[in-house]
TrEMBL record:
Organism per entry: Lentilactobacillus senioris DSM 24302 = JCM 17472
Record lineage: Bacteria, Bacillati, Bacillota, Bacilli, Lactobacillales
Listed PROSITE patterns: 5_NUCLEOTIDASE_2
PANTHER family given in the database record: 2',3'-CYCLIC-NUCLEOTIDE 2'-PHOSPHODIESTERASE_3'-NUCLEOTIDASE (PTHR11575:SF6), 5'-NUCLEOTIDASE-RELATED (PTHR11575)
Key word Ubl conjugation present: no
A Pfam family of this chain: 5_nucleotid_C
Domain (5'-Nucleotidase C-terminal): residue spans on this chain: 327-480
Family: Belongs to the 5'-nucleotidase family.
Domain (Calcineurin-like phosphoesterase): residue spans on this chain: 4-238
Protein name as it appears in the record: Putative 2,3-cyclic-nucleotide 2-phosphodiesterase
Annotated Gene Ontology cellular component terms: outer membrane-bounded periplasmic space
UniProt entry tagged with the keyword Ribosomal protein: no
Keywords, alphabetical: Hydrolase, Nucleotide-binding, Signal
């Protein structure tokens, strides 16, 4: 008997094969393509084969389509995401961290039409039963019992707004797996762990590949929890298919480019005797016709909405041509986002990130499409009261983003591997500062002034930033909720839209407050 375990993860609402950069863009990914592959695999199952599919989280947030559904539709219409996954034929689902970005009411609406269980063994608290069905499920097919344990990253409270997590507690995925796997081992023939979290150490060497926290515990689960037959991971957007000491592991990237595929070979006593792990590319798949028909009107509404004009830009262009140069020298677009943050919070220091190299900024005529493609997270704002020492520490973290190779500035390896983290480098407005990359990491901030005066370690400052950074996300431990003095609970895209309405046209200027030496 063979057990095949398929998984998607981190699709981030990319239903259609498009990146939404233009109305006619065609991409090589999307849930509609993954749907075709999963249905084909299930339909082609042999008499001695079981095919199980798991949706491993970060599904209902991340694309312009998800922004439209969250902000422009009713609760009933928001259930489209669970209608899609139910039609595909998933056997279980797991929550990702981004499932919580729009709050629990939206999460329940988006997941309303499921015909499969939503699993969350390490999610506890008084409202836990309102968003997950069970810690595990057991799929019984052809005389075989397959137990699936659902886990999500325990780091969600570090990033998410507290009012989005009311009544919930997130426990260590590792400790939860240690508790449940032995029990499931007694109840089922096969034990699968589906974890919306990643691998914090290299599979070959065992050496840490990132700071060891509760964010990613996959390697520790892999090496410290006996009795697991297959491990599904996610969250890091990596493409992983490997067998570690006989235990198969997958992570299928993002946006539905791949479907993870683990195959287990069972002997007559139903014990696993062999396994493989692969990634199945969806690029050549034709989008599922049933789901295309189900969602076509929604997609058209999204495309029309995206091309609504918001305002105009005068002066230096806000279009980003070279992301690296924008980070090295500042950019009118980054300056503008900080300007929006300062206007919304009433402070005169702000920080923002160029989240990825797909951010294009704004043309002279600005549309909703440009705003959403450039600011793809539903971040809200906080103001933190910090010391000069805190600010310098944050800037040193930013300065560590760069390294010099053969006379050229490149992104430091720690921000690229094991996953790309461009979003963890910030550009600041309202201060004058300088990095000297010839100095060792931790000693690169050679100038830091506020209102023309050198910032002292004891000095108190107020800084606007998104709530992810304000919670300390991205290893910015100098920030935290205890230092928050003001919250603006509107998404940044709403604040940007409001700013255009009140200040149209806006004037773009190249910032001159930041220098890098190397």
């Amino acid at each position: 008997m063979k057990v095949k375990i398929l998984s998607t993860s981190d699709v981030h609402g990319y239903v259609y094969p498009t990146d939404y950069s233009t109305p006619n863009n065609i991409a090589d990914y999307g849930m509609l393509k993954a749907a075709t592959l999963i249905k084909q695999q299930k339909q082609a199952a042999a008499a001695d084969e079981i095919v199980i599919a798991v949706e491993n989280g970060d599904w209902i947030q991340g694309s312009p389509l998800t922004s439209y559904v969250a902000k422009q539709t009713t609760a009933k219409q928001q259930g489209i995401f669970s209608q899609i996954t139910s039609n595909i034929g998933y056997d279980a689902g797991v929550l990702g961290n981004h499932e919580f970005n729009y709050g629990l009411d939206y999460l329940r609406a988006a997941e309303h039409y499921r015909n499969y269980p939503l699993l969350g063994a390490n999610i506890a608290g008084g409202r836990q039963q309102q968003i997950v069905d069970a810690p595990y499920t057991i799929v019984k097919q052809k005389g075989i019992k397959v137990a699936i344990l659902g886990l999500t990253t325990a780091y969600i409270p570090v990033w998410e707004q507290a009012n989005h997590l009311t009544g919930l507690n997130f426990k260590s995925a590792l400790e939860t797996a240690k508790l449940w796997v032995p029990r499931l081992r007694e109840m089922a023939d096969v034990v699968v762990v589906a974890y919306h979290g990643g691998l914090e150490s290299d599979l070959k060497t065992g050496l840490p590949s990132e700071k060891i926290t509760a964010e990613d515990e996959g390697y520790r689960i892999l090496t410290q929890v006996p009795g697991i037959d297959a491990l599904i991971t996610g969250h890091q957007h990596r493409q992983i298919a490997a067998v570690y000491n006989g235990l198969p592991v997958t992570q299928p990237g993002e946006r539905g480019r791949f479907v993870g595929c683990i195959e287990l070979q069972l002997e007559k006593n139903n014990e696993v005797q062999g396994s493989t792990a692969t990634l199945l590319a969806t690029e050549e798949m034709i989008p599922d016709s049933t789901l295309t028909q189900m969602t076509a009107k929604l997609e058209q509404k999204v495309q029309t909405w995206l091309d609504q004009p918001l305002g105009q830009v005068n002066g230096t262009a806000m279009a980003i041509v070279d992301p690296m140069q924008a980070r090295l020298h500042g950019h009118p677009y980054l300056q503008f986002i900080n300007q929006v943050e300062m206007a919304a919070t009433g402070v005169d220091i702000a920080a923002t990130a160029l989240f990825n190299n797909e951010v294009r900024g704004y043309e002279a005529e600005v549309t909703i499409r440009q705003v959403l493609n450039s600011y793809g997270y539903p971040n809200t704002l906080v103001v933190e009261r910090i010391t000069g020492a805190d600010l310098k520490a944050a800037l040193e973290r930013c300065a560590s983003f760069f390294e010099v190779q053969a006379g050229q500035v490149v992104v430091a390896a720690a921000f690229v591997k094991p996953k790309v983290q461009y979003y963890n480098y910030d550009f600041y407005s309202g201060i004058d500062y300088e990095f000297d990359l010839r100095q060792p990491v931790g000693s690169r901030v050679t100038k830091l002034k506020y209102h023309g005066e050198t910032v002292t370690a004891e000095q108190t400052l107020q800084v606007a930033m998104n709530q992810y950074r304000g919670n300390g996300g991205g290893e910015y431990d100098m920030f935290g909720t205890a230092k928050v003095v003001k919250e603006v609970n509107l998404d940044m895209t709403e604040l940007i839209t409001d700013y255009f309405e009140q200040n149209n046209p806006v004037t773009a200027t190249q910032p001159e407050n930041f220098q890098v030496k190397w």
